[in-house]
Design a protein that fits this description.
This protein is of the alpha+beta class and about 80 residues long. The chain is built from 4 helices and 3 strands, in the order αβααββα.
Length: about 80
């Protein structure tokens, strides 16, 4: 399930970049719409493994992939 979450996050992030939608982070709501509500355990494992980071927006929590080029992408957000 963790790999499925990462692939979905990458796809959604790339779609936002192509459409020039910023910020490019993914919300929990975005992932629940794509993968269903049974993803919490996988997300917590990915956070623990250092593969994604999370924080708060006004209405939801956001998730962001941690990648080598993330520091460049972070400046665009």
């Amino acid at each position: 399930m963790e790999q499925n979450v990462l692939e979905t996050m990458e796809r959604l992030t790339n779609e936002k970049i192509k459409k020039k939608i910023f910020p490019t982070h993914i919300t929990w709501v975005d992932l629940r719409k794509e993968l269903g509500s049974q993803i919490t355990e996988a997300i917590l494992k990915l956070i623990e493994d250092g593969k994604i980071k999370t924080g708060h927006t006004l209405n939801d929590r956001y998730l962001k992939l941690i990648t080598v080029n993330n520091s460049t992408n972070e400046k665009a957000n």
